[in-house]
Amino acid sequence: MHKTFTFNYPKMKSLYITVLILFFNFSVLAQVDSTKVVTTQKDTTKLALNMDAVYARPFLKLGKLPISIGGYVEANTSYFATDGVTEGMSFQMPRMTLFVSSTIRNRIKFLSEIEFEEGGKEINIEFASLDVELHPLFNLRGGIIMNPIGSFNQNHDGPKWEFIDRPISSTTIIPSTWSNVGFGFFGKYAKNNLVWAYEGYFSNGFDDTIISNTENRTWLPASKENKERFEESFNGVPLITAKTALKHRKIGEFGISWMGGVYNKFQEDGIQIDKKRRVDLFALDFNTVLPKLKTYINTEWVWAYIDVPDTYTQQFGSKQKGGFIDIVQPILKRDVLGWQNSTLNLAFRMEYTDYNVGTFKETNENIHDDVMAITPGISFRPSSQTVFRMNYRYIWETDIFGNDPSKTAGIQFGFSTYF
């Protein structure tokens, strides 16, 4: 579900050992002269947007070394049953992510994000870009960029969320942590309580596995399996991603984004073999904090339009939609066991995803293939950078014919923390 760039096992093992050695050496340096270790703090006087999430993380600056490092880790246990059948309790460590950043020269920055998934089974380069700051309203970015579609794709770090599972629509319609090689520009304008920002990128993109995959449905995350997209475009047509966001300090942030391009190979050796078939995604996102209750509300909704060939059966949807809403209510904030300003939260997520919006041609009845889920939970934060969370998750999955849905229920407990 969350694959991006997969290495084979020998390379994975070698890189993993190398990273551990480097991390150990950095730790030793920090112990030798701990007075030179500082934590990079974001400027709280400015209004931060989802697009700022890539740099709004805790980093350690080690002495006079030209780089800063950081990361986060997630681990949890779960017990689920589907229609009364269970495989028992399982333990997971879905990801550990390392950040490495460097200010190469004034207004020239580099940041990389490397993710170790499923206990080191896979290594993914999710972000590795060079930023050139020319003017607040116009800056350049190139490398492996995170396509800014929706809000979750940009702001996906585990410690920021009260829920163990990532949103369904943000992982199965929008491919989770969807990134590609490309370049583009971004900018921001702020005045008083208002800030406006934009981003636009050209990158490699999807391929025809979105309609030719083992899921036997239109499935955009299938393109994440294509490692070649980090070396060349599947069809020579760039994927375009654009987003704009507006935030008011007292109201919240609203974002609108679009990502689209040709996904099929329409010509071979200069000979046209098919027409150009497009995939387009539109997303709206909004987040706010209610002033008196401090209730945090975050929501995202996405629509996907896919030009599916007429030769495909109707189980391959040409339109998909879905979204989620999170409500997080702090109920206690006090010092606990020496942790200052610890917070206890109640949380609730509601989500819906429809993989095949439309009706059958023969009967004009609704095509289902949809998922609905609710997730109440409770979380404890000894600091803003660490969260312990417990979720109860209930999922209804309905097939394309609208038969009685299969029901999955389970409990999850885990933690996520920056380090």
TrEMBL record:
Residues 1-30 form the signal peptide. SUPFAM superfamilies: Porins. The keyword Signal applies. Keywords: Signal. This is Phosphate-selective porin O/P.
